[in-house]
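Q: Predict the bound structure with SN-glycerol-1-phosphate.
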Amino acid sequence: MKMNIYSDLVEKKLNLQKSFAVLLDPDAVDPSSLNSLVDLSEAAGVDYFFVGGSLVLSTHLDEVIRKIKSLTRIPVVLFPGSPSQVSRFADALLYLSLISGRNPELLIGQHVVSAPFVKKSGLEVIPTGYIVVDGGAPTTVSYISNAAPVPADKNDIALCTAMAGEMLGMKLIYMDAGSGAKNPITESMIRSVAENIEVPLIVGGGITDPEKACLNCRAGADVIVVGNAIEKAPSLIKEISDAVHSVKCENLKM
Ligand code: 1GP
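A: Predicted complex:
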């Protein structure tokens, strides 16, 4: 039977269980070299593959996803930068609305255009409030979205944005400093948001080591997403996965 990704996320949150998602940018992966990455992820107990990018130039998205699906049962979740990044071969789609921006196209416009196609895809669609936070330098997402990110030290703005997203019906909140961000999101901002929402919280952008992943989980992140750092050093998959999954045990000991 097909796994319901959202129920799985909610159940894990209730059990104080943290998750680790490896982000694959279709532009950066060669379908023929996916085997070792998937093997490393299986061995490390990775929870999800997120697939997508702010700007996907390659045309092999379906191929990448089918290849992953043929190699592993780790669920594949689309994290699309545009409606062209929807593949029916994935398990679920983060239906992102850029609630930190004021660009109507990314709040609702592109959703209207892609709705019939998304519905027909049969994918599990998860409405996600996407909050981009300033990561210290312009990232692809901040440029492409043509929307100002939340200033890194304005916890209240992030908090109110997340609360509004939740009350509007978003089932997930994703806080992102952008791929390759110089500065990942601070624990104090993560804590402010996590303490005031009930839906699962995803955090990513610029996380490069297990310590930061662990601190983010302790601050309240439910899912940690890492892309760039892993592309450079695949051995980090195991280190970060162990760090993320260790947080539940620490909580239970308290
Ligand atoms: C970006 O949250 C993701 O949208 C992950 O960022 O590539 O910096 O890990 P990195």
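A: Residues 23, 176, 178-181, 204-207, 225-229 surround SN-glycerol-1-phosphate (CB under 6 Å).
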